[in-house]
Amino acid sequence: MTANPIAPVHDLLAASLRAWRVDGSVARGADGSLVLSTSGTTLAVSRGLPPFRWIVTVGARRRGVTSVAGLLRTVRRVVDPDHQPNRLRIAPAPLVLP
Amino acid sequence: MIPVCVLTGFLGSGKTTLLGRLVKSSDFRATAVIINEFGEIGLDHDLIETSDESFVELQTGCLCCTIRGDLVRTLADILRRRDDGAVPAFDRIVIETSGLADPAPILHALMSDDHLAARLTVAGVVTTVDAVNGADTLGRRQEAVKQVALADRLVLTKTDLVDQNPDALLARLAALNPTAPVLPATFGAIDPSRLFDAGVRDASGKSADGPAWLAEIAHHHDRAHDPNRHDERIACFALIRDRPIAAVALTLFLEVLSEHCGADLLRLKGIVDIAESPDRPAVIHGVQHVFHPPGFLDRWPSADRRSRMIFIVREIPRAFVEALLGAIEAEVQETAQPA
Hints:
The complex is a heterodimer of chains A (98) and B (339).
Chain A: H1 6-19, E1 24-28, E2 34-38, E3 42-47, E4 54-58, E5 61-65, H2 68-79, E6 89-90
Antiparallel strand pairs in A: 1-2, 2-3, 3-4, 4-5
Chain B: E1 2-9, H1 15-22, E2 31-37, E3 55-60, H2 68-84, E4 92-96, H3 103-112, H4 114-117, E5 120-130, H5 134-140, H6 142-149, E6 153-157, H7 167-176, E7 182-184, H8 192-195, H9 210-221, E8 234-241, H10 247-261, E9 265-272, E10 282-287, E11 290-291, E12 295-296, E13 307-314, H11 318-336
Parallel strand pairs in B: 1-4, 1-5, 2-3, 2-4, 5-6, 6-7
Antiparallel strand pairs in B: 8-13, 9-10, 9-13, 10-11, 10-12
C-alpha cells in the first residue's frame, strides 16, 4: 500500500471537476473520506475492502468500484449525467517508424 | 503504403496557391489531389494545373462534417482506379480541405477505416497561415485556431506582403503548437520535401518526425506555463516522467483520458519509457479518442530516456492530466505489491 492512497485521488477529483466543467469542490471529511460537493449533489469517496478499492456513497446508496477508471466513471455519472463518454479507439494501421 | 497529407488553413490563407505551385514541382509529381470546396460550384480545382502524372478530384460540401463518408469513398475509388490503370499511378495523396474545416474528423476517417488504413498512411497535417491577416483570424475564428493546433507543419504565406517580421503572429503560433515548424512561403514557393515528411507515420520508412517534435517537447516544457491570453480554450503542455511507466498504466491513462475528454484532446504525441520495454521506447500518437497502436523504436533516439508526451487540448486542465496519470500509476504500483 502506498503511504496515503487517498491523496492522489483527492487531487484527481478536484482536477476532474474542472476538466468536466462542473462547479464544485472536494474536501476531506471527518472520517477521512473525500466529500465532493456540487450545486446539486454531495457524494463521498472512501477506501473499500477488496475487491473494491473505492466506495462511492450518494445518499443512502453505496457503490463499490475497483479502479480509478471506475471511480471517475461513477462520480461523473452522478455529477455530470449528460456526459456522453468516448471509447478509446485504436486505428487499424500501426505506426511506421524509422 | 501511400502517404496522405491533409492541407488545411483558413479561408484565403493561400492553400490553393501553395498547392498550385506544389503540383507543378518535379519533386511533387505523381500526386493525387482531392480538393474539398464548400459550396455547390467548385472553383479551386480549376485553378490547379497539374502535370500528366498528377490529377485533381473535387468534392463539395464540408469534409469534416457532412461528407466524411464521401471522403472514404472517394479515396477508395481513386485507389481502385489507380489499380485499374484508369488514373496515373500516384504515390502521394493531398487532401485540401475547405477553409472552415476541422481537420480532426478527416484524420479519424483516414486512421479508422480498415480498408484505407491497409494502403494509406497519414503523412501529416500542413496548415497555411496568412502573414497579413493570420493574427486577426486566430483571434476571431476557432476553426483557424484548431487548424493551427492540429498541424505538423505551419506554412506562413503572403510573407511578401508584410514589411516586418510578424513576430506577434509567430509567437501565437508557437504558443498554440510549439512542435510544428513554421515554414515561410512566398507566392506559394516552398520545398515540398519540407512539407510532407511531417507525420509520425512515414510510409517511406525514412525518418519519422519523432526526433524533431521530441526535441520540441523538452524545449516547450520549460515555457509551458506561458500565458496565452488570446486562445484560452486551446492549450499546449508537456508531461515528462523520469521513471518508467507500466504498460497497463499507460493503457488505462489513455482509456480514461479518451472516455472523459476525448473530444477535447486535439492531439497527443509522445515517446514513452515503458517499464516492460526499457530499451525500446514506445511512440504514441492520437487525435481526440482515436490512437494509432503504439510503435516501438529500435533504440532511444538520444541520451534522454524520459517519457515525454505533448498535449494539445481544448479546455483540459494540465492538472487533470497530471493527476490522472499519477493516480493510475499509484494504483498500478499498489496492485502490483503483495498484499
